[in-house]
Amino acid sequence: MAKKTNQAPIRVQPGPANYYSYSGALEELGRLYPGKTLEMAFLLYGRRALAGAMPYLPLTVHQLVGSRSFLFGGGDRRFNTGGLFNTGYCSHELVDALSASLRPGGASVIIGLGGGSVLDTAKALSVKLDLPFVAIPTIAATCAAATPLSVWYSLEGKALGFEIFNRAVDAVLVDPRIILEAPADYLKAGIADTLAKWYEASILTGGGVNLPLSVRLGLEVSATLKDVLLEKGKAAKTALKTRTLSPEFIEVVDAVIIGGSLVGGLGERYTRVAAAHALHNGISVLSETHHLLHGIKVAYGLLVQAALMEDGSLTELVPKFRELELPLSLRDLGIDPDDKEKLWHFIDASLVPSESIHYLPFPVDRERLLRAIETVEKLSR
Fold first, then answer.
1. Helix, strand, coil fractions of the chain, as percent rounded to 5
2. Any alpha helices (H) in 54-129, and if so which ranges?
3. Rounded Cα distance, 239 and 231, in Å
4. Checking phi first, is residue 267 left (phi over 0); if not, alpha (psi -120 to 50) or beta?
5. Cα 83–87–93 angle (5° rounding)?
6. Which residues of 46-58 are buried (b: 16+ CB within 10 A; e: fewer)?
């Protein structure tokens, strides 16, 4: 009889069924969904995303715009009441409204074109309607395009948590020429969010020797991503400024989009979120941060997590964050560190019992978190 182990079962979701990343990748749409299938697709898109992708999209997708599409966050009132649900966040209200508008048989495939919120909304809609989902990311700010989960927000922009779906993304089509035209802040956010994969996963795995092989593989992937981003992130950022389609730029884009997805898919709860993302959620309760990208808030949370761990990673990260122009302080996020009311507000929101900050190998209370925040503030000065 085989000996039992003390490993807890995990669910491995390695990544999307198809991933294409090259100049001209959007032409794969016609091969994956030929003829009437693509003509019956339903497109969710952002206004700027569509403008950037238009030169590279097949003509069939051009023809979807208007009658078989939804302008995300742009006042499209056909699917809700007075634009109430179309606030630019992935919300249950918006997905429900879109689902109700698409009668059974009304679409063959859902295509998401844009950034994380558009893709998360389109992904959740495809799951609700049991339809294939194709992601066309126009920025490299998160791994949302390739990961089978959506991050839910309230209509006001408060993070509510994430939902992992039972099905993989059917196809991710990355044309790096589109991403090269995006504002630099998106790539910076993507670098930070993907760096967090290693720093959070290394805490969650705790150096344990009895981890499932897939978790160990996920941890190895996160370590590789960390090296790529710290070594090539600056060159990728320079390529973006000069609009040069360099090998470093393409590698960093793939590290963010497919690399980040692989880490969570291989390691599940051991490689997903810890304190950095809890701080993101806490900071998100402050209205002055609602305009900030997910990865920018995670970047600050990563510094606070490093201060909590006291493992030397903070001194490694600070010079790299300066190099990559990532936030180093609350003021960089538009928050006054001397406003104690707001400070305690987001500290308490970061410490609610369900938050992932409690995955750290020691208890974190208000005072301990405050000391870590003060450490980051002093170091940044």
1. 55, 10, 35
2. 59-62, 92-101, 116-129
3. 14
4. alpha
5. 75
6. bebbbebbeebbe
Query: Using CA atoms, how far apart are residues 22 and 334, in angstroms rounded to an integer?
Result: 37
Annotation marks residue 277 as catalytic: yes
**Active-site residue (options: 193, 227, 290, 348):** 193
Among candidate residues 120, 170, 175, 294, the one labeled active-site is: 294
In the residue annotation, 280 being an active-site residue is answered as yes
Q: What is the pTM of this model?
A: 0.90
Catalytic residue among 76, 277, 339, 358: 277
The catalytic residue among 280, 311, 345, 365 is 280
Percent of the chain surpassing pLDDT 70: 94
Quick one: DSSP state of residue 259? I
Burial 130-166 (b: 16+ CB within 10 A, else e): ebbbbbbbbbbbbbbbbbbbbbbbeeebebeeebebe
Question: Mind listing the domains of the chain with CATH numbers?
Answer: 19-180 (3.40.50.1970), 184-380 (1.20.1090.10)
- Does 294 qualify as catalytic in the annotation? yes
Confidence grade of residue 75 (pLDDT, cut at 50, 70, 90): low
From 135-149, 209-223, 247-261, the region with the lowest mean pLDDT: 209-223
193 is catalytic: yes
Tokens of 7: 């490993």
Asked if residue 168 lies in contact with residue 148, where contact means CB atoms within 8 angstroms, the answer is yes
